[in-house]
Every structure is written in structure tokens, then in C-alpha cells.
Amino acid sequence: YICLCNGMTDAQISAAVAAGASRPKEVYCACGGRAQCGNCTATILTMIRAGGDSAASAGLPLDAHRLNRVI
Q: Using CB atoms within 10 A of its CB, is residue 43 exposed (0-12), middle (13-18) or buried (19+)?
């Protein structure tokens, strides 16, 4: 999962970006969620900038959103 609060996977986020989502808010809406804690936003932005590539393809660990909680 990229977003634990909404249970969004990298595949769901990639599909939302491929369907035209160009901002995190649009990705949340497309996936039936909403911004909550915000820890996944940087990963979602990176995926948007990479054109919808999965987190792994974009060079991110699948749990990149958790790094903010550790620091």
C-alpha cells in the first residue's frame, strides 16, 4: 500500500494517473479516498511526475510513505 489511511495501492494510483489525475486530490477522489495524514502525498506526487509508473518503477520503495513517520 502507498496510502495506508485509504488503503490505496500503487496499481490504483497508477490507474488514476493514467486516467488523467494530475494532482494528489484528484488521485484520492479517483480512488474513493481523501487526504488524511498526508504521509503518502510525496509518493503520489512522484508517481504523477513519473507519468503513473508504479512506486517501484519510479525508484521508490513501496513503503516510502512510512519514512516520514520514522524521522
A: buried
Report the pLDDT value the prediction gives residue 71, as an integer from 0 to 100.
Answer: 35
Concatenate the DSSP letters of all residues of 43-66 into one string.
HHHHHHHTTS--TTTTT--TTGGG
pLDDT along the chain (71 residues), means of 10: 96 96 96 95 95 66 46 35
Give the Cα separation of 11 and 16 in Å (integer).
Answer: 9
How is residue 7 written as a grid cell?
Answer: 488503503
The grid coordinates listed for 35 are 487526504
Rounded Cα distance between 53 and 29, Å, is 19
40 by Cβ neighbours in 10 Å (0-12 / 13-18 / 19+) ranks as: buried
